[in-house]
Structure formats: structure tokens, C-alpha cells
Design goal:
By secondary structure, the protein is an alpha/beta fold. It has two domains: 5-56 and 355-394, Roll (Urease, subunit C, domain 1), CATH 2.30.40; 57-347, Metal-dependent hydrolases (TIM Barrel), CATH 3.20.20.140. The chain has 13 helices and 17 strands. The strands form four sheets. The protein has a five-stranded antiparallel β-sheet, with no helix packed on it. The protein has a five-stranded parallel β-sheet with strand order 10-11-12-13-14. Strand 11 (203-208), helix 7 (218-225) and strand 12 form a beta-alpha-beta unit. The radius of gyration is 22 Å and the shape is globular.
């Protein structure tokens, strides 16, 4: 298949509500939704008979630079501090080329599964060139610019200087980020990073309160960014919120909503990293997903780490995140599907997409009979559309050996 291929009509698609339609495109946007079989036939159509058409997924919190290092590091299984230490010890071996190769592979794997927009954090590394990871992700973003949208965010601890963050922004990184809750003085580190973002005129995306206990930084993050006009703000993980009582949680959720702070839940990595010190009634490790969703907080969901010390697993498939949101966060299937698509696009402040006239033509068509069937089977057969163009197609073949009905078998005692 020659990529990317512009499309005119997505024919006979099953929409999430179970109805069928022809979705007519006008370049990068949806022109109209009409009855199936009524749109004029063109050579730029895609027949989606047997497929469910969903808004393409967006992943608002990824670590493309760390991805696929599990086999290279062979780390021990463990909690967040263990993972941080193990990756830091390995980081000297990283080169711009090795990071770019792994990041590209992971990004294309995400694309094939239906993710057309990604926000990736970029670590500062040890050695003579601490920005080699940043440069690698900038390279991959440029290489894949016609296939998917990649947004980048710095990620450094309290030892990373303002000058390094500033240089990363100058080279093309979009957002300032960090993990203030892991600093010696969390509030001071949060203040430093927010002040830097204010000076540079950028938005922020913070790893926030990724623990089962300890101080909360999300309230101050919401307060400081509520009146920003120069950039947006979001908070990833927020596991600590999931440990609070209803009375403790309610005013925090209200403050986050009123500040329009985006929150990103990351089930697979938080389920893996949290709770190692609590072997009895081990907590789920997630943020307060239900409470945030019901309160109307701007909420999205992502896959976070992929096959690195922070998560040994990961299939780059948003439907894996959907399954975990249903089983671990007790969301409905429709709610979970929305969080990895519309919700995540909202957190990233991307234009609305999907099968609505005037929306962006960002889609993933998955073979199946309903949204529930797609979420359960995660069928590999998919077509991915970005900016109205077909950018990825997967066609899988299953071959099963011949078998005979039981009535044709001769059973002997």
C-alpha cells in the first residue's frame, strides 16, 4: 500500500451506536454522514463492511524513548523507585540512533493499532550529550509527520537545570514536564517548573502524585495554571487520588475541574508499579477515575510505558487500555473507548474528531460486529485514517486445520 492515501468516502461503516452509514470526507475533515450506499462511488473510497468505525485513539502520555528496553536491561521486577534507578543505570548505553530506532518502531506499532496522535515525554540523559534523547524524538517526529501527530514534553528530575529544559524547547519540544512528587521538596520543584514554563510561554504536562501515599501536588498545579493563557496544563498518573476518602477527594476534584486541568490515567503502568509494598488487599494503583469522570474533569487515558523497567508488557494497542479501564477502573465499555479517543484528544487540546460533520477525519476501523465485540476481541484487522488519508492497514489471516462435526465421528467404547 502506498502511504498516505487520500480518501473520499468510508463506505458502509458501522458507527459506535450500531447504525451503518457512508462517511464522506472533505480533505482532513468529515463533510457529511449519509445513509449507507447513497454516497457517490469514487476510486478513493474504502469499503468498511464488517468493520466498526471509531474515532482514532490519541495517547496523551507515552515514553517512546524508553520503549522496548526491557530485554536490553533485563531488570528485576519492582516498584517505581526500582524502575527509575534501573533505567538511569542503563541510560549511559543510549545513543541517539538507538533511541530513534526503538521510538520509531513503537510509534509505528501504535499507529497500526489506531493511535494517530501521541504525546511523548523525553528524558534528559547522562553523559556528554544529555539532549540526545530529545534529538532522537524530534527526528522521529519529523520522519513520521505525514502519518501521525507527535507532541513532545521534557522530563527531568530536580537535578536537570532550567537551561537544559530551555534548550529542549528551543530545539522544538512543545511542553515542560517533570515529576515534582519525586523531588526532595515537591512543592519547590513544582514551582520551579511552572515558573520556567511561564517564562518560556509553554504549557506543562507533569507526572503527578504517582504513589499510594505522600504529599499532594495536584492542588497547587491546578491553582497555578488555572489562569494561564499561554499554554495548557495536564497531570499524569495522579495515583494518590485513588487512595483518598470521598470527603478528602471531593474538594480536590472540584479544584481540578474548575481549573480545567487535564488528568491522564495510565492503568497498565500504575497497576504494575503500585502496591508492591502492600501484599494484602493490594490497591489498584489508579487515580480516582470514576469520580473524575462523573465530575466532568477533562480526562484521558494512555498506555504510558511499553516494555521497559516501568512496564514489562504493552502491545501499543489502545484497546488494551480499554480492557484495563473496564476491569480495573470499572468503567463501561463506551466510557473506556471514549477516554482513549475523545477524552485523550481533549486533554491534548486537539480538535474534535470522528463521525460528525465538521470533525477531523481521524479514524480507526476495527473488524467486528459492535463496539463491545471490538473491545473484547481487539481484532488485529484495522484501517487507520489520519487527516483523511489511509495511513495504515493490517490484514490478518487465520488458518485452522480441518475438523469434523461430532455427528460424523465414530465413537467406540
Amino acid at each position: 500500500m502506498s502511504l498516505p492515501r487520500p480518501l473520499h468516502t468510508l463506505r458502509n461503516a458501522m458507527l459506535p451506536d450500531g447504525s451503518r452509514a457512508d462517511v464522506v470526507l472533505d480533505g482532513e475533515t468529515v463533510a457529511q454522514i449519509v445513509a449507507p450506499g447513497t454516497a457517490p462511488v469514487t476510486t478513493a473510497d474504502l469499503d468498511l463492511t464488517g468493520y466498526v468505525l471509531l474515532t482514532a485513539a490519541a495517547d496523551p502520555h507515552a515514553h517512546l524513548d524508553k520503549s522496548r528496553t526491557w530485554d536490553l536491561i533485563s531488570p528485576t521486577f519492582g516498584d517505581l523507585p526500582t524502575a527509575v534507578a534501573q533505567y538511569a543505570e542503563y541510560a549511559d548505553a543510549e545513543t541517539r540512533e538507538s533511541i530513534a530506532d526503538r521510538a520509531r518502531t513503537t510509534a509505528l506499532d501504535m499507529l497500526a493499532h489506531g493511535v494517530t496522535a501521541v504525546r511523548s515525554h523525553a528524558n534528559f540523559l547522562s553523559g556528554d550529550d544529555p539532549l540526545r534523547g530529545v534529538d532522537a524524538l524530534l527526528q522521529v517526529r519529523d520522519e513520521l509527520r505525514d502519518l501521525m501527530d507527535i507532541e513532545l514534553c521534557t522530563l527531568g528530575d530536580e537535578t536537570v537545570t532550567d537551561d537544559l529544559h530551555t534548550e529542549a524547547i528551543a530545539r522544538g519540544v512543545d511542553l515542560i514536564g517533570g515529576a515534582p512528587h519525586l523531588a526532595t521538596d515537591p512543592q519547590a520543584e513544582l514551582d520551579r517548573l511552572l515558573t520556567l514554563a511561564e517564562r518560556l510561554g509553554t504549557g506543562v504536562d507533569m507526572h503527578t502524585d504517582e504513589a499510594q501515599h505522600g504529599p499532594l501536588t495536584i492542588v497547587e498545579l491546578a491553582r497555578r495554571t488555572a489562569s494561564w493563557t499561554h499554554g495548557t496544563a495536564s497531570a499524569g498518573h495522579c495515583s494518590r487520588l485513588g487512595t483518598l476518602t470521598a470527603d478528602e477527594l471531593s474538594p480536590i476534584v472540584d479544584a481540578v475541574r474548575d481549573a480545567d486541568l487535564g488528568v491522564i490515567t495510565l492503568p497498565i503502568t500504575n497497576l504494575y508499579l503500585q502496591g508492591w509494598d502492600m501484599p494484602a488487599s493490594t490497591p489498584r494503583g489508579l487515580t480516582a477515575v470514576r469520580e473524575l469522570l462523573d465530575a466532568g474533569v477533562r480526562l484521558g487515558a494512555g498506555a504510558d510505558n511499553v516494555r521497559d523497567p516501568f512496564n514489562p508488557l504493552g502491545r501499543c494497542d489502545p484497546l488494551e487500555t480499554v480492557a484495563l479501564l473496564v476491569t480495573a477502573a470499572h468503567l463501561t465499555i463506551d466510557e473506556a473507548i471514549t477516554l482513549v479517543s475523545d477524552g485523550s484528544r481533549s486533554v491534548m487540546r486537539l480538535a474534535p474528531a470522528g463521525a460528525t460533520a465538521g470533525a477531523q477525519a481521524e479514524f480507526v476501523a476495527v473488524r467486528g460486529t459492535s463496539v463491545a465485540d471490538v473491545a473484547a476481541s481487539a481484532d488485529p484487522n484495522r484501517h487507520v485514517i489520519h487527516r483523511g488519508r489511509l495511513v495504515s492497514s493490517t490484514v490478518a489471516t487465520v488458518t485452522t486445520a480441518a475438523w469434523s462435526p461430532a455427528t460424523e465421528r465414530q465413537v467406540t467404547a
